[in-house]
Fold this protein.
Amino acid sequence: MAELSIFIAFVAGVLSFLSPCILPLVPAFIAYISGISFDRIKSGNYHRPEVFINAALFVLGFSLVFSILGVIVHTIFAGIAFELRLLLSRLGGVFVILLGLYLIGILKLPFLDREHRLRIKTRYRYLTSFLFGVAFAAGWTPCIGAILGAVLTLAITEPVNSFYLLLAYSAGIGMPFLLTGLFTSQAMDIIAKSGRFMKYFTLISGIFLVIIGILVFTGQLAAVANLVLPASILTPIG
């Protein structure tokens, strides 16, 4: 089941990147952390390795925070009794379903509508990129908050794998960011044309969370893992 859960966390990260809260802002993120104007990026008049390094440090910043969250979850929940873990799975499944219904638009969850931002600015560009990544992880935006909340809930129900789940989630967001940093001009053109598809990404994310929530609540995630992956490679992590 560990491999499937980690894959789910990775997909959740990709969906977070594609969400209306993140994807349209990616060019602004890249321009901000690299200190390069949109015009220069569009014209290709920029130093590509410089942009990529700043993007990598940004990814490192939020990956560090998410990984620490995974360690904290493991420390708190790894030693709990089986009966309590079963209860957490039931509660967690319901919570993930509610998060999915929120993304679909069926349910209103006011606490997810609040957005917190940390403003980071230093004289050192690389340090700014790293700290901006930390601030990005600490921010709670409506779209990424629901998906991250689902991954954290999954981590609580599987504390032995919590570090790997949050790391996989970071990779799901981080890999597209790195590709954007490597092919910035081309990525900006693609992102500019993606606006009409944004509502579908949110709907897909919501349906994805509802399905995961149902599987967690019913305890069928392991059964699905056995169907999806050969039993010979289903060796639990930890």
Notes: Residues 2-230 form one domain. The two ends are 12 Å apart (CA to CA).
